[in-house]
Amino acid sequence: MEPRTERAHEAFVRAALIGTRFAEVRWVAKTGSTNDDLSELARKGAGEQVLITDLQTAGKGRRNRVWTAPTGSGVLMSVLLRDVEPCDGFWSVGALALAASEAIGELIDVPCSLKWPNDVMIDTVNGQKKVAGVLAQLVDQSIVVGIGMNANWPDDVPAEMAERGTAINRHTNDRTMSDRPALAVDVLRRAIGHLDSERHVLRTAWKARCSTLGQHVRLELQTGAIIGTAVDIAADGALRLKDKDGISSHQVGDVVHLRPAT
Ligand code: BTN
Description:
By secondary structure, this protein is an alpha+beta fold.
């Protein structure tokens, strides 16, 4: 387990992924944003690959937010997927999020679920908290899917981080540190399986792990908010919300879980 250098981490992950579509792996000590790095490579026609880092100086979150994590506290990883059909975009991203929720769920003793569109959540005594987030960037026919997983948080993370987020090491049976290279391998292996599966199989597995379904939610859009019950995830990944006017479909937005629907 840790501590090892990024070179040893890289060798470990590479060895575990030989012969797979993610055989090309780099683990670097520091970069701006792994998503930006792979997007640049995608524009130059690079093949499928994985980039992992211990620290990002310009980490990006969804909806133009920043994604920060203390050095070595997270698995900050992007994968470059080539030749993705635009209509398949949600599920390419969803495959990574589902893989992360499954891998994290194996490490902890409390439920780990997906909040639409692709947040990975852990149940805590103070409600659900986010343990991982996913950010996708389209580059021509490729998608760069970046995932930030909070693995080992120190005790003194800023209060605003701990209010809405959490880390794996706070929920393990024996409170041990999470082995980041092993977690990266587990997520990537599971992701390969989901990416290669039939889309209806992936959608069924994703929905089964989704804690948004059946909830009374507030969907925050650029233009305002809608309140309703989350009744389905459509074949294209859209969230289907039911309110007094009927059922509407939404491709983007931030969900707040209000309470289980009655
Ligand atoms: C979110 O807002 O929930 C998405 C966060 C995604 C963060 C990851 S960390 C690795 C990759 N590189 C980035 O700059 N962002 C993603």
